[in-house]
Design a protein that fits this description.
Helix content is 55%, strand content 7%. By secondary structure, the protein is mainly alpha-helical.
């Protein structure tokens, strides 16, 4: 049994399938930084998930390294968090195969994200795309995670993960911790600058701000952001989704409340408001971008971080995998 004083464990991962965005930072990574003293945190760069869509090999390697540098630049301390590359811990693939044998075809067929991605990539509907949620379950269950920070689009996958864990526990006695979705109190849901009805996505270069964007690129993107014809800076998600999104970004970047922001820009119009939002984002991202660039230049340090992270991750993961293998009848190695 766990000690009552033992910290709860959090697991999360982001694919290196594109550049990290302002939405990634404000909605997830900034929250991770606030969790690292209160929880035992394991953060994975999930490159195995990324290859469900065709990747350019050199780009995948580059983005994996840059993403690790960005994590550290955002304030994640490698000594406090386990940070590693998913493909460097083979237990993920081993447990994924086993759990796939305890997952029903119908369960995977009902996954909303599989249906959506099958339409987006109709020419490349692979078995990997279909079994993606099983690998995600393996990611979480390997580390006996108590909590999984997720957005609405991944909540269904965590529910399936719990179903698989309960099924296995029911057959072989308690083996896996049942994870709970974790929605941090802090954090903003950042929408696309071009389509405020959609979440900011790394696959939409015109609608998103990347963490490594130069100041002039950030200014240009906010200048072209969708608003409305009223020219009034007010928060109204229904009638003014574009302006509401910009207010959310401005407040998250500046630390001001919505009321303070509305009062500050009362009667000034979007010609003043949009550049001010851009300036706030530029100043928020500047130290992160500069520190990321410094870290990328020190490749040996980044290699030491992900190798040490993989070593620590394997130490935890192998305990779970060995227990699972013993329970299902595999001979000890």
């Amino acid at each position: 049994m766990e000690s009552q004083n033992q910290k709860k464990r959090i697991f999360s991962g982001i694919q290196p399938s594109g550049e990290l965005t302002l939405g990634s930072y404000m909605g997830a990574i900034r929250n991770w930084v606030t969790l690292q003293d209160e929880y035992e945190c394991i953060y994975c760069i999930v490159d195995m998930h990324a290859i469900t869509v065709r990747q350019v090999p050199a780009e995948l390697r580059r983005r994996s390294l840059v993403q690790l540098a960005e994590y550290i630049a955002c304030g994640l301390d490698p000594s406090k968090n386990v940070m590693f590359i998913q493909s460097h811990v083979p237990q993920h693939a081993e447990l994924s195969w086993i759990l796939g044998c305890y997952t029903q075809f119908g369960e995977l067929s009902r996954m909303t994200q599989f249906k959506m991605k099958s339409q987006q990539h109709a020419d490349n509907i692979t078995a990997g795309l279909f079994t993606y949620p099983v690998l995600m379950a393996a990611d979480i269950l390997l580390y006996q995670a108590d909590l999984v920070p997720v957005g609405e689009d991944q909540k269904q996958h965590v529910e399936l993960c719990r179903d698989i864990a309960q099924r296995f526990n029911g057959l072989y006695s308690d083996t896996f911790t049942l994870p709970e979705p974790f929605i941090p109190k802090l954090g903003a849901r950042i929408m696309s600058l071009g389509d405020p009805g959609s979440k900011m996505s790394k696959s939409d270069p015109d609608g998103c701000v990347y963490m490594m964007d130069k100041p002039e690129d950030i200014q240009r993107k906010f200048k072209r952001a969708v608003t409305d014809c009223e020219a009034a800076v007010k928060f109204d998600k229904v009638n003014k989704p574009g302006v509401s999104n910009l207010l959310t970004i401005y407040c998250a970047a500046s630390g001001k409340t919505v009321q303070e922001a509305e009062e500050a820009f009362a009667g000034q119009g979007y010609g003043v408001f949009k550049p001010a939002v851009a300036d706030a984002v530029v100043e928020l991202m500047r130290p992160i971008r500069e520190e990321t660039e410094r870290l990328i230049a020190d490749k040996s340090y980044l290699e030491s971080v992900y190798r040490d992270g993989a070593r620590r991750a394997q130490g935890i993961a192998q305990k779970t995998l060995s227990k699972v293998q013993r329970k299902i009848g595999f001979l000890a190695r």
